[in-house]
Design brief:
The chain is mainly beta. The chain is built from no helices and 38 strands. A hairpin with a 4-residue loop joins strand 16 and strand 17.
Length: about 375
């Protein structure tokens, strides 16, 4: 952590993984993929390594390529290939952080139910139980108990509303409550409470859909929640360390009319208020991308088909960089002596205010000593 004197106070600059100051707030480029791809999938393992899996390249492949990203060094490396090359697949990790490559298309109009699990200790992919329904263009997400869900998409029978649940402890798939309507080209994510979201895509009547449904595993029910502000298909989704869900990129339209391909639009969902808000846009619009989150809660947009590069190798990371003021002393994870009536405690990674589980003593003059593992910075609230 570096301190810079500003007038009568001190600014604390957040540091990146290598000790360098974080870039400006918003989406910032990190190391690109070794091979540009779209229709790819991504997931994060227990060690915080992110995997970009399968997809299609400029040569029209059904790719078995897998690349691994290390956020601590900002580097991609090639790991073992999939046993079955695929595009239009999905990926997720279970409660033990094991990564799965699920379904997809192995050749033109050849949807597959195959599922492979990656073993990082041996750098191998191994087949596990297949889904009950082969599918492509679907969403996948994981609940709080580490069970993986696949939803919607396209099968050899057409558009799907079906949802399946995978239990890693028994290596079995089972059918759970279906989506309210058939949907393809959608995306999915889970929030901090383990609720799942099926986001956007297209239905049989509307190619571009703003519909969002929320699944509660404890009751096996889907509920319609607030819609996206912009109807999109071929988008990606992920949640951050605070449980906010992000709907990233895609193609924008209304009903059956396409408005723009490969948009940079990003919306953030707050489960507490059931609202979507548009936030900082991607640097480059893209569709058919993947998204993943590292162990620090930072969200990444990976690959896709971009306005800047048809087969985009670029990777962007969402960074929040607040303004930090009046920090007079910092020891370990404790900051104290905040002489600002509007001072607030922020999460160091996301820049969001820390509220739960933290005692702040405010007397209009100071905020007393606070210890919080990942909350090390303060700022003056904007008025």
């Amino acid at each position: 952590m570096s301190l810079q004197k500003i007038g009568g106070g001190v600014i604390v600059e957040a540091e990146g993984p290598m000790g360098d100051p974080e870039p400006t707030s918003g989406w910032n480029n990190v190391a690109p993929l070794g091979t540009g791809r779209y229709d790819i999938a991504a997931a994060t393992d227990a060690d915080g390594q992110i995997y970009a899996i399968g997809g299609d390249s400029s040569s029209g492949d059904f790719m078995s390529l897998v690349e691994q990203y290390d956020p601590s060094t900002d580097t991609w490396s090639t790991v073992a290939s999939l046993g079955t090359g695929r595009q239009r697949l999905a990926a997720a990790s279970d409660g033990d952080g094991r990564v799965y490559a699920i379904g997809g298309e192995a050749s033109a109009n050849d949807e597959r139910a195959v599922v492979e699990r990656y073993d990082s200790s041996t750098d191998t992919w191994n087949e596990v139980a297949s889904m009950g329904t082969e599918r492509k263009y679907f969403g996948a997400a994981t609940d709080a108990n580490g069970r993986i869900y696949v939803m919607g998409g396209e099968s050899q029978d057409g558009f799907e509303s079906s949802v399946e649940q995978y239990d890693p402890s028994t290596d079995t798939w089972s059918t759970v409550a279906s989506l309210s309507t058939v949907r393809t080209d959608l995306t999915a994510a889970s929030d901090g409470d383990g609720l799942l979201y099926a986001i956007g895509g297209g239905t049989s009547s509307a190619i571009f859909e703003s519909l969002v449904e929320q699944y509660d595993p404890s009751t096996d029910t889907w509920t319609t929640v607030a819609s996206l502000g912009s109807a999109r298909e071929y988008l990606a989704a992920a949640s951050d360390g605070d449980g906010f869900v992000y709907a990233i990129g895609g193609d924008l339209g209304s009903g059956t009319t396409e408005i723009n391909e490969e948009v940079p639009i990003v919306e953030q969902y707050n489960p507490a208020t059931n609202t979507w808000s548009e936030i900082a846009s991607l640097r480059a619009g893209r569709n058919s991308l993947a998204a993943a989150t590292d162990t620090n809660g930072r969200v990444y947009a990976i690959g896709g088909e971009s306005t800047a590069n048809e087969f985009a190798p670029s990777v962007e990371r969402l960074t929040f960089t607040p303004t930090f003021v009046d920090v007079y002393s910092a020891t370990g994870n404790t900051l104290f002596g905040i002489d600002d009536p509007n001072g607030i405690l922020l999460n160091r990674t996301t820049g969001r205010e820390v509220t739960g589980g933290t005692q702040l003593a405010r007397d209009g003059e100071t905020i007393a000593a606070v210890t919080e593992t990942n909350a090390r910075i303060y700022r003056t609230e904007e008025t």
